[in-house]
Every structure is written in C-alpha cells, then in structure tokens.
C-alpha cells in the first residue's frame, strides 16, 4: 500500500473562493493507493468489469452433466436385441463414471462465505436461445477466483478461432485486499471486437495441485 500525502496551504486570496476563512492554515490529506506485488494498482470490482471463475466452471460442469445425462437416457432406450446393445452398455457405464467425476467437481467448488462482491453481470441468450455468460467489451478486464484457484492461462476466441483476448501474465493470481484476500484476480487484455458476437473462453486453472482445462461460450454484449 502506498500513502500519498498532499499538503494544501490557504492564503487570504484563495480562502474566499473556498467560502471559509482558512487563511494561514496548512491541511495535509493522506490518499491510500493499493498496489500488488507486481507494482500495479489493484483494480476495483464493478458490476461489469469482471467474470467470476466459479460461475463459469459451474456453467461448464452443468452443461457437460446435462449432455451426458441426455446421452444415457437415449442409450437406455436401445433394446437388448439391437446389435449395438453391448457396445452401448459399455458407453453407458463409461458415461456414468464421468458423471460421478463431474458431480464431485461441482460439489468441490469453494463457496463464498463472509464476502459479497458486486452484482454479477446478467446472462445473455446464445445462438440456441440458452442463457450463457456475458461480457462487455468496453469494461471487461478481470477474471476473479477464490483463493484456492490459480489461473494458469486464459484466452477468448471468436467463431473463426481468432484470439480476441488473453490474460496479462503480469497480473495473474493477485489478491484483492478489499475482500480479505479471499478473492484473487487475473487481468485480461481484450482486443477490439464487435458486440453481440458469441465467443469461446478457454481457461486453464490449478486447484490443489490438479490442473483443469475447460471451455465455455460467452456472448460479447454492448450495453
């Protein structure tokens, strides 16, 4: 934290402009500015400049769970007389094992206790009219995580696989003192992009020594 001291001296001439007789008074004001260990000023969370990583991961897990459960239900309708019955049973077993892992990951997402960040951005409707995460291209600059998650890399790509945003490696996994250091942030560098475009956010993170890589669709929305 850097403390900047500013001393203001009031003479007869400028005291009248202020509206009070402060002639000869010297006033010192201290302004506290927080900096991270990279020497950059710590950002302030607003209602539109960040995405919460656990929300994105929850969205991803629930989407994958829904896909697998739909497949299992469809496979269950295949009759034993069908030539592919045995093959399908093996697929069902494998899918159920994957479901267990997905549900475990969902349960292990660390909840927020005792802290309340700003209101999260509202979701958008994707190309299939389903709710997906939104970003504002003029304001989005941070990916926020709980203290047990470290972002290793992230990138945002458009439908043509052009990279339109990457993480700033100098601003990765930095604490937010305002939230008792229970929240961390990764700074994001966003290139110029047209609004109302569906893109793909790829995230590589580490939790308790384990590395996860996942992708989620996001809508670039201009407010």
From TrEMBL:
Q: Which domain of life is it from?
A: Bacteria
Protein name in UniProt: Uncharacterized protein
Species of provenance = Salegentibacter salinarum
